[in-house]
Write a structure and sequence with these properties.
This is L-fucose mutarotase. The chain is 32% helix and 25% strand. The chain is built from four helices and five strands. The mean pLDDT is 94.
């Protein structure tokens, strides 16, 4: 299993942020979106928020690729409707390229205090 971390900003508007969170509650999510996420090979997904910054953790199956997910999404009418709705709340990070939303983050630190170091 591979883990990806991604970031995206919301528009800095408390009403829009509240509505975005509304759509991401389990009872309000669209079943077609959940199905598309699982079909792409995403085994677990979590989204966290601080202020207007979002942080996503994805754990994926071995066959997952962002390219395949993008192609599947482009051919799924409900995913396109969802993405259109989400753009009402989202804004790209300042360093994002044209049309980019969620950006993969670079890991810069890792600590495993309970692992043994074979070099000691």
């Amino acid at each position: 299993m591979k883990r990806y971390t991604l970031a995206l900003d919301l528009k800095d508007d408390p009403a829009l942020i509240a509505e975005y969170e509304h759509w991401h509650r389990a009872e309000n999510g669209w079943p077609e979106i959940k199905k598309s996420i699982i079909a792409a090979g995403i085994a677990n997904m979590e989204i966290y928020r601080t202020g207007n910054r979002l942080f996503m953790i994805m754990e994926t199956e071995a066959h997952f690729s962002f390219e395949t997910k993008k192609a599947l999404d482009a051919n799924n009418r409900k995913v396109q409707e969802w993405e259109q709705l989400m753009w009402k709340f989202q804004q790209p990070l300042p360093w994002a390229g044209e049309g980019e939303k969620w950006l993969v983050m670079k890991k810069i630190f890792e600590l495993h205090p309970n692992k043994t170091n074979n070099n000691e």
